[in-house]
Write a structure and sequence with these properties.
Length: 138
Amino acid sequence: MTAKDIYHNTVIVALKKDGWLITHDPLILELSSGRLEVDLGAERLIAAQRDSTQIAVEIKSFLAPSLTSEFHRALGQFLNYRVALKVKEPHRILFLAIPAKIYRNFFIGELAQLSIAEYNVKLLVFDPDQEVIVEWKN
């Protein structure tokens, strides 16, 4: 089992406040080449349709000295998880959860914006102090 991000519990609280039910902690994806662990699986019931929306959430703190290096690692991990989800749980939508400060200080920059657009990265931006989701970026 991999170590949990420092914001792991914060994101759980924020998702619950936003009406999500945590279904997996972690969400395990078994492939013939090995096991992957996405931080969280969650779902929200859509009452009118009696259906649910299911997501997977990978949480990143971006605490290392180089935000660019952290971004490279997070993007690679995100893309690998998305490929595995496509095979194992294609109904789930994958989100990368990041603190609002990191979004403002790095993710609005050119490299991040070009990469997000190119690779269709979905973001869950959260406020770690208030333990709330600030924005869903699709």
